[in-house]
Amino acid sequence: MLLSTNSKKHKVTVIGSGNWGTAISKILAENCRERNDIFHETVEMWVFEEKLEVPKNSMHYKSSEPVCQGQHNLTDIINALNENVKYLPGVALPKNIHANPSLEDAVRDSTILIFNVPHQFIIRICDQLQGKILPYARGISCIKGVDVEEEGVSLFSETIGKKLGIYCGSLSGANIANEVAKELWCETTIGYDPPHLDSKAPTPAGGSPSQSQVDLVSFEHKDSSGQYSKVKLRPLPTDYPPIDHALWWTLFHRPYFHVRVVSDVAGVALGGALKNIIAVAAGFVDGMGWGDNAKAAVMRVGLLEMVKFGTQFFGNSIETKTFTEESAGVADLITSCSGGRNFRCAKLSVQRGAPIEEIEKQELNGQKLQGTLTAADINKFLKKQGAEKDYPLFTAVHRILKGEMSVEDIPSHIEPKL
Ligand SMILES: NC(=O)C1=CN([C@@H]2O[C@H](COP(=O)(O)OP(=O)(O)OC[C@H]3O[C@@H](n4cnc5c(N)ncnc54)[C@H](O)[C@@H]3O)[C@@H](O)[C@H]2O)C=CC1
Ligand SMILES: O=C(CO)COP(=O)(O)O
């Protein structure tokens, strides 16, 4: 067990309060309460504010609480009822979650930042956070998606790290939020590869950089292209418990949420992003009524494309065994193709003959699909690389979503050409 001999405690903020953002906040709040020798008990949860009435599927529908009458801010409702009535209705949240509508206030003095929003919103959030966070904070991204720009494809753990000047790992796994929130057992994977102190960096007066330096210190860091580079990071002051694999395990592990911490940050993040495209494909073929064999076929081809993409574009910084051995890979693929939102909405879109965006709006009550956007992001990148034909399943999903191909074409499209 991790024992704390340090004088300062970590303050934890979750940036995001959707379906997964709230379920993760619940886990963290339970652990912060139990391990209040290491963590501040209160977990701040940043909420993108909106006004609503307590809905019928809430545990508090028609209760006599003042916030249950008429329209109120979601933050006020969460703080009064300890339930996220919109994104995780029916689940009692620990009282030590504080829903906060101010991003700046939510991250103030936090040493640990957990990023958990739909990926389309994270860049703007990072822009708003610049200069507002502790410079020696460390992060974990629970976001499933990729960041495609002119220069290429990056993972959000990297993008967040670069934009905020902090180190950020990743968390991903077979973790359908509603099941995790009901405390049904599952596994997850955390990727964290903390920078090593650069032994050649000038040592400041008064000791080693890790002990006394409060200014920028140069670290050697391996990025997702496998390149070692010198990056400047603020070391965590030594009066805090070190942020390492053991600390992440202590913060996230629950009897119902089993954590494995690995060093393959890129593999964890990439697996979570790419499986969402495959889940859309699985939904398409299931919507056609083609049965489990067809679904298994797209899962097989999809897993191979995941491994190929990781190897081709993330080089030696990725361990492809993460895709086959960790929850963040094949297990996430299986659960997402069974009961995930991408799967369910893609299936309904075929069954109802309606665009998936329409189904998303009708069925998800404000929750967001990631697979459709990721299919477009990955396609943009593959096109630029001239590699669309090497990834027939990823390409097919994008083309079907764009109306350029039909689901009936999937079998012939993914068959290797002789
Ligand atoms: N829900 C799940 O079962 C799981 C989700 N994930 C991943 O976690 C990430 C977050 O997903 P969820 O928490 O499920 O989100 P969600 O799908 O429930 O999305 C709704 C959230 O987006 C926020 N939002 C809407 N418009 C916004 C805006 N303009 N700016 C900022 N926020 C806005 C809403 O306030 C709400 O918090 C995604 O990348 C997802 O793939 C990972 C594992 C499981
Ligand atoms: O990532 C998930 C499960 O691990 C959830 O996937 P969906 O977003 O498709 O529901």
From TrEMBL:
Record has NAD as a keyword:
yes
Q: Name one GO cellular component term.
A: cytosol
User: Taking every annotated instance into account, which residue ranges of this chain make up the domain Glycerol-3-phosphate dehydrogenase NAD-dependent C-terminal?
Assistant: 264-410
Gene Ontology molecular functions:
glycerol-3-phosphate dehydrogenase (NAD+) activity; NAD binding
Describe the reaction catalysed, as an equation. sn-glycerol 3-phosphate + NAD(+) = dihydroxyacetone phosphate + NADH + H(+)
- Swiss-Prot/TrEMBL GO biological process terms: carbohydrate metabolic process; glycerol-3-phosphate catabolic process
Q: Which UniProt keywords apply?
A: NAD, Oxidoreductase
**EC number(s) on record?**
1.1.1.8
Query: Is the keyword Nucleotidyltransferase in the record?
Result: no
PROSITE patterns listed in its UniProt record: NAD_G3PDH (PS00957)
Residue intervals of the Glycerol-3-phosphate dehydrogenase NAD-dependent N-terminal domain: 11-194
State the Pfam families in the record: NAD_Gly3P_dh_C, NAD_Gly3P_dh_N
InterPro entries associated with the record: 6-PGluconate_DH-like_C_sf, 6PGD_dom2, G3P_DH_NAD-dep, G3P_DH_NAD-dep_C, G3P_DH_NAD-dep_N, NAD(P)-bd_dom_sf
Q: Which family does it belong to?
A: Belongs to the NAD-dependent glycerol-3-phosphate dehydrogenase family.
Report the protein name in the record.
Glycerol-3-phosphate dehydrogenase [NAD(+)]
